[in-house]
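TEACHING EXERCISE
Course module: macromolecular assemblies
Task: Read the component lines below, then compare them to the predicted structure of the full complex.
Student: A.B.
Group: 4
Components provided:
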Amino acid sequence: MSAAAIEPLPWHRPVWQKLLSAWTEHRWPHGLLIHGPEGVGKHALATRIASALLCDRQNAFAACGECASCKLLLAGTHPDFMAITPEEDKQQISVDRIREASAQLALTSYRNGYKVAIVQPAHQMTPAAANSLLKTLEEPPPRTALILLTSRPGALLATLRSRCQQLKLASPSESDALAWLATRSKQPISPRLLRFANGAPLRALALADGQFQALWEAVTQDIASLLAGKEDVTHIAKRWADEQLVDRLTCVDHWITETLRAAIVGTDDPITRTPLPINGLQLNISRPQSRLWASLDRLRALQAQLSKTALQRELAVDSLLIDLLDAMSRGAVRQ
Ligand SMILES: [Zn+2]
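Instructor-supplied answer key:
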């Protein structure tokens, strides 16, 4: 855990105010459920809460960063702090992990203060693990804080959700996110990259090392080659199915969305004011874009399927690209 992990993030302010009121009014809940999209800082918020609860000085619910407790937490060796995550090579959090943590929470605190456990991602607990955690939440040992983090609150047991105080973390507005990112990233972060990251600043920051830009250029180049008849569908489908398919499809999703937006408001990207990536092709705005909308629907259905079932990826991408090619050649004219 680094010192940066407990830095307050500006878009957390309203949620932090709620927590502060609960603390000062002695309404601190035993269970907290923090939910929101990936990259919005759920873990950073949970860490800040844990630091405030464990700090020896307990001054206005803010960690001092200097006491023995704060130093132990920063070093990752605080005996009253537990991070419960899936074991290595496993997708799920086992019942044994939860039992072990519950047993530890039932003991007296080593440092005569709070005991804190963060469960992440909470929706990846096995049913037995979730039921075991529910028991601890129903009869919580004194001065314990269980903090559950998830991007999928609906996937948790309803009884578990109702035992926790729920805190929703939302992404900041695009302009606020870009302003914050400008102070944090050495690389310039484009609105396109932020949109690719679903508006979540920490995810955008993680993607800002140039990998996104390279992938975006590769994908738009493939679409351009396809439309220009320079490369065939099968080659591109194989390349995409083999590597980074999910991210590539997200790029295509953004590309179609931008293209449709440009068809309505103009041929430049309305936000970045840069020309759309296919040289020599411009959309014929007078033609209906219904085929391209239909392609977008198909793409989103495929994205949803990919997250649930194993399918013939190459075949699915092949058919998606044929559909896109057809939609684009009807909706576009060469200039
Ligand atoms: Zn401290």
